[in-house]
Structure formats: structure tokens, C-alpha cells
Amino acid sequence: MDPNLLKKLNAARRERKAVIAVTDLGDGRDRLVHKGDAVAGDLGAALEAAFRTGKSGLASVEGREFFLNVHVPPARLVIIGAVHISQVLAPMARMAGFDVLVIDPRTAFATPERFEGTDLADDWPEDALKERPLDAFTALVAVTHDPKIDDFPLIEALRAGCFYIGALGSKKTHARRVDRLGEAGLAASLIGRIAAPIGLDIGAANPPEIAVAILAQVVAALRQRTPAAVPARDEA
């Protein structure tokens, strides 16, 4: 690979940007395509499919052969709130292959003893997310029940296009949340992306079961790419 192209590829990977290194097998020329770049015709369709699946492979386009080397950032789960549900959800998500970050400014909750082996930030989300901003390959789960902690990352997640956004709370709690986010200037269609009540409707009755319901919904959003269509569980 051309050294300049490799430099650009490494930069994209550091910045958690999805790219595909496209090699024309006929003449050996390489180029880098970022997700969202306009590429016309059948090659564009092949690139979009490769971004969606995350799998590298050959593409035959109008009698020419291309190798599409896909580089997609690893899926990440950001949990807002170091609560009992998070203590179960974090290790489960790591086992499922997610990079996990738990954020909670309440230092009595966000302790290494309660979250052994988990990346933990005992800062306000406003500060923690400056260092590690959200992106389209991140799922955000807000579970503190505290608008002062949850609302900012929810707004950031909606603006960043996170592939999944969920928030704990009853329907009444979420209705108040919708009002607040609307007052913050977010469109109703955008707010509608939030899965609330959070998690698949499996009748979950305790923190471990709720964590299972949440992780299942996150995985469905990641693999099916249809987060708004995933049914939510009901909460009291």
C-alpha cells in the first residue's frame, strides 16, 4: 500500500472513522473511501454494502475486479450511570465484543471496586465526552434517572447519530424527557430515535434481566441497523 494512503488509513482508524481501502486488481491502484463519500454506480452500491456488513471482499463492477478492505471502528457502548444495571451490563457487553465506557460524576457509584475491569470515568458527561466523543459506531445507554446527568449525553448521541440510544424510565418519565429535549431545540423525529422505555420487552423484573433486555436491543440495532423498529420493554 502507498505510504501516504497508509498514513491516511491509520489516521481514520485513530479517529474512529469508517473507511474502505479500494484496490483495482486490474492496475493495482489504491484509494481510500470514507463512509458518506459519494461514489456513483455499482461500485458505490458495493461500497455501501461493505460498510453495512463490515466484511472485506471482492467486488465485480462493470467487468473490473476490486478488493474492498473494510476498516470499521469496533462497536462501543457508553453507559451513563454507574448503577446496579450497569454493573451487570458492562461485563456482559464486553463479553459480546463491545468496547465499554461507564460515565458517572457521582464518585460514590463510579468506583473501580464496583466496576472491576471496566473503563470508568468519574466525570460529568460534558467533560468525559470531550475526550472521547460519540459517533455512529457507538451505542449510548442512559440509566441514572437524573436529567442533570442523562440529558446532555442523550442530546450529544442524537446529534452524533449513535446507532442506538436508550434511556431508562417510565413512559411518564420519558414524556418529561421529550419535553426537555424539545425545549433544547431537537426535532421530534430525532427525539423519537430514543428507545424508551429501554430494552426488549421480555418482562424483565430485576437489574440482571433488564441488562439482558438492554444488551439484546443494542445488538439488534447494531446487526439489523434498524434501532427505531426494535420493540421496547415497559417500565413502571
Structure description:
The protein has 236 residues and is an alpha/beta fold. The protein has two domains: 3-71, no CATH class; 76-229, NAD(P)-binding Rossmann-like Domain (Rossmann fold, 3-Layer(aba) Sandwich). Helices cover 39% and strands 19% of the residues. The chain has eight helices and nine strands. The strands form two sheets. The chain has a five-stranded parallel beta sheet with strand order 7-6-5-8-9, with helices on both faces. Helix 3 (84-95) packs across helix 8 (207-224). The longest helix is centred in the last third of the chain and has 18 residues, at 207-224. Residues 226-236 have low confidence and may be disordered. This is Putative sulfurylase large subunit (Molybdopterin cytosine dinucleotide biosynthesis). It holds the Pfam family XdhC_C. Residues 77-218 form the XdhC Rossmann domain. InterPro entries: MoCofactor_Util/Proc, XdhC_Rossmann_dom.
CATH class of the largest domain: Alpha Beta
Roughly what fraction of the amino acids lie in strands? 15-25%
- Overall number of strands: 9
Strand order of the largest sheet: 7-6-5-8-9
**Helix/strand order, N-terminal first:** HEEHEEEHEEHEHEHHH
Any idea what the radius of gyration is? Answer: 20 Å
Structural class: alpha/beta
**Overall pLDDT metric:** 91
Largest sheet: 5 strands, parallel
The CATH fourth-level homologous superfamily of the largest domain: NAD(P)-binding Rossmann-like Domain
Architecture per CATH nomenclature, i.e. the level-2 architecture of the largest domain: 3-Layer(aba) Sandwich
Q: What's the total helix number? A: 8
Cα end-to-end separation? 56 Å
Helix content: 25-40%
**Low-confidence spans:** 226-236
Number of domains: 2
Shape: elongated
